[in-house]
Amino acid sequence: MVQRPKSTDKPLPPPVRQRSRRLEKKLRIGEFQEVGFPVSIRLSPALSSKACDEFWDAFLTELIVPRALAFCGHEEGFVMRFGSGSATEADRAAVRDWLQARPGVERAVVGPLEDAWYAPARETHR
């Protein structure tokens, strides 16, 4: 499974309490939660730097931008909806299928949908 580097770990969600819809929207929690998914891509070492640049250009122009998604990272990154909203299971499948069909991709792992702003809540609070 794709793991985020420790330096970019997300904060824990705010403690559970009653909040106004306006504040929930600002915090992106509850009905306003936004989800995305991690992606790990390993390109073939045989690819030239020009071929690598063409891969990333195609990844953004053929897949990410037309689906109104945003991608941050490089070979380890995160995909979410551009603007407000959430990535969908269909977006996940499209990214996975595009990467698997692309020549020059040695390995591609697409993680599950997860909260784009907060780390998973702990089961017990002490």
TrEMBL record:
Pfam families: YggL_50S_bp. InterPro entries: YggL_50S_bp (IPR007416). Residues 1-21 are annotated as: Disordered. PANTHER family: CYTOPLASMIC PROTEIN (PTHR38778:SF1), CYTOPLASMIC PROTEIN-RELATED (PTHR38778). This is YggL family protein. It comes from Ideonella oryzae.
